[in-house]
Amino acid sequence: MAEHPYSVGDRVLVSRDLSGEEHVEGLVVDAFTVLTAEQSVMQVIVEFGPGDRQFVVIDDNVIQPAPADPAPAPAEIEPAPAPAAPPVPPPPAT
């Protein structure tokens, strides 16, 4: 049996109408394989929002991994201002 391509917590793009078009991002909340005498079918449950879930049979046209988030840009850190030099005392009076 092949290894399941998705795990709980994976971000995926799903064609909600199963047409293979208009993919929407969701989160895998369950991944399993249904076994029968003749075949095994890999499925996931994808959550699109609170209470909005859909069973999806693994098919490359219907579900695919979401693109990875680009790495965040390093924060621009402003250098701390240089400490002010202590005042120079006036020369002694003569």
Structure description:
The chain is mostly beta strands. It has a domain at about 10-65. About 0% of the residues lie in helices and about 40% in strands. It has no helices and five strands. The chain has a five-stranded antiparallel beta sheet, with no helix packed on it. A hairpin with a 4-residue loop joins β2 (about 25-35) and β3 (about 40-50). The chain is rod-shaped and about 110 Å long. The mean pLDDT is about 85.
Summarize the helix and strand pattern as letters.
Answer: EEEEE
What's the total number of strands? 5
Report mean pLDDT, rounded to a whole number. 86
How many H/I helices? 0
Summarize the structure.
The protein has a domain at 8-63. It is 0% helix and 39% strand. It has strands at residues 11-15, 23-35, 40-49, 52-57, 63-65.
